[in-house]
Design brief:
With 326 residues, this protein is of the alpha/beta class. It has one domain: Peroxisomal Thiolase, Chain A, domain 1 (3-Layer(aba) Sandwich). The chain contains nine helices and 13 strands. It has helices spanning 27-31, 38-45, 56-71, 95-103, 119-132, 206-228, 245-255, 266-269, 276-286, and strands spanning 11-19, 23-26, 49-52, 80-84, 109-113, 137-145, 163-172, 179-186, 194-195, 203-204, 235-240, 295-302, 306-313. The strands form four sheets. Strands 1-7-6-4-5 form a five-stranded mixed β-sheet, sandwiched between helices. The chain has a four-stranded mixed β-sheet with strand order 8-13-12-11, sandwiched between helices. Strands 2-3 form a two-stranded antiparallel sheet. Helix 3 (56-71) packs across helix 4 and helix 6 runs parallel beside helix 7. The structure holds oxa(dethia)-CoA. Oxa(dethia)-CoA (UT7) is lined by residues 36-37, 40, 44-45, 117, 155, 159-160, 194, 204, 206-207, 209-210, 213, 243-244, 247, 271, 302.
Length: 326
Amino acid sequence: MPATPSGAKGAVITGWGTALPNKILTNIDLESMMDTDHVWIRDRTGISQRHVGGTTAGLSAESGRAALQMAGVDPADVDALILATTTPDRTVPASSSTVQNLLGLSSCGAFDLNAACSGWVYALVNAHGLIAMGAQTVLVIGTDTLDRITDYTDRNTGILFGNGSGAAVVQACDGPGQMLGWDLDSLGEAESALFAEVGGFLQMEGKEVFRRAVRLMVDSATNAMASAGVAADDIALAVPHQANIRIISASLDRLGIPMERASIVLDRTGNTSSASVPLALAEALDQDRVTDGDLILFVGFGAGMSAASAVVRWSPHATTNSGDTT
Ligand code: UT7
């Protein structure tokens, strides 16, 4: 993948927000729904509970509204809304149309982006592309309501997935902006490892996904760091897709990034697909784990099999093109 061109218009993240449905499904709850047990799930995946319920548009509006409020952005000033989701509420229209209406984004482009669990990182890179072409403000949301395509009697898949949403406001700025490098990848030959037919449940070859996931994450993160001209030692915070703690640990170990530098939310959220990276980012930011100048590595993988990574130098106080200091 190409490096971010040095002359491209830069962008910064100026606000973020999250949404999780109220209803929680614990591992203990799952014991009465399928042949499994809490200790096995926790030890083999790192997950203790997940949230279920809600709609993709409703959760997106909640996280998006919070992100716009934090950024101090008037909904009328949003130029584009990208909603990364694998679980739109309807086949037609895109759920981003519903979200645009709910948020009162009066005049903007809006589209859904499906790159499975890599979706939010794909959307973040695309938002930077739109800004390089002249957009000022892009709202990037990642939301999935996987309970609608998960068979909670199947212990192969039913232990892993949950619902959630995370959003970020990305704005044009003076200077080069935050994103130093990126990588988008897809391995179509592996699509049969994880899929759901229209109207059907997720089907998965768990071991095959696990094996390929580690390789995809390592390769994609390595490409993004190379295009950014940085090394693993430079990364202050890793924000990986939250699928399985053993996948994250194996990938970071191969990359040479200590686990203490990772943001982990999957113990409380399960795998929320497009929402998992922004949920983990928001928690790290809310806990003040990131300071000015820190390098953040986003790395996602998912069905497809897709992968996406980006390296960002955190600089939330950059001056946006509107003249505001965020
Ligand atoms: O966004 C991408 C989404 N997908 C993924 O990331 C999935 C990646 N794969 C995985 O996370 C793991 O492969 C799983 C969590 C799905 C399964 O873990 P595993 O370590 O690969 O388990 P396994 O299939 O090798 O099974 C080990 C043992 C077996 O018993 P025996 O044959 O050793 O007696 C299974 O029958 O664990 C048993 N087992 C379970 N026991 C309780 C498998 N699933 C369960 C379960 N509860 N849910």
